């Protein structure tokens, strides 16, 4: 946000795409791997660019990995050092950094394009709830912030397509049809379409910030598929559910809560922030 404020003061607006990538890279390296990117000038300045290139070309980046997390991989999961590092780089680079690079801009766009007074409501909630220090636990006390995150994931799932091959013959049911699936057939799920099902979601094409609040909203979480399963599900080795499903939601909620404890308002469009008003 310091970078964005500085750019706005010089140019009148600031693209938030690169600052978001720089931020999420440093945040993920610290929180997932336990390493500080600032210990290497090259990684600190260009680590996010390395991952962008890797995402595009599947070239393995070189990043310092904290020894503690490697030790856990060896002791708790029976992996050797090479396997630990490869898994960590894939999680950091593809699952986490890649996913957040798609998701967070959608979240910012929804917030800065607000014409309904949403920012005022979020500002009130994040300053009244969660205590003095923000954390993964404190944002769980912010139902509107969490609902905004869920609604963004519903309309813009970071990974819209999922594929799987049938392990046995079975019948796949929709609201009004039944399909015979044969063992070995390749299936594709398009979440962007599924998450706009009018029989489940009222006004499915509209962004409703409070959609997932209260008891009725909590029930809708059983139908929220932004990962490889419902939001109410848990990742296992067999279901291909996003291993960091809850981490994604809470990280995004933490980001929103921090932004509106820092600012009274944020103005912009789908790619840029044009003005910020510091909290009074």
Q: What topology emerges from the helices and strands here?
A:
Blueprint: H1 2-11, E1 14-15, H2 17-33, H3 41-57, H4 67-77, H5 81-112, H6 118-128, H7 143-155, E2 161-165, E3 170-173, E4 178-181, E5 186-190, H8 191-194, H9 214-220, H10 245-262, E6 263-268, E7 272-278
Antiparallel strand pairs: 1-7, 2-5, 3-4, 6-7
Helix pairs in contact: 2-3, 2-5, 3-5, 5-7, 6-10, 7-10
Key features of this structure:
280 residues; mainly alpha; Cytochrome p450; 2 domains; 3-stranded antiparallel β-sheet; two-stranded antiparallel ribbon; 50% helix; 12% strand
Short description:
It is built from 10 helices and 7 strands. It is mainly alpha-helical and 280 residues long. A hairpin with a 4-residue loop joins strand 3 and strand 4.
Examine the secondary-structure arrangement and name the CATH architecture of the largest domain. Orthogonal Bundle
* CATH level-four homologous superfamily name of the largest domain: Cytochrome P450
What is the straight-line distance between the termini? 17 Å
Mean pLDDT rating? 89
Question: What is the number of independent domains?
Answer: 2
Q: Supply the number of helical segments.
A: 10
Protein name: Cytochrome P450
Keywords: Heme, Iron, Membrane, Metal-binding, Transmembrane, Transmembrane helix
Family: Belongs to the cytochrome P450 family.
Organism: Fagus sylvatica (Beechnut)
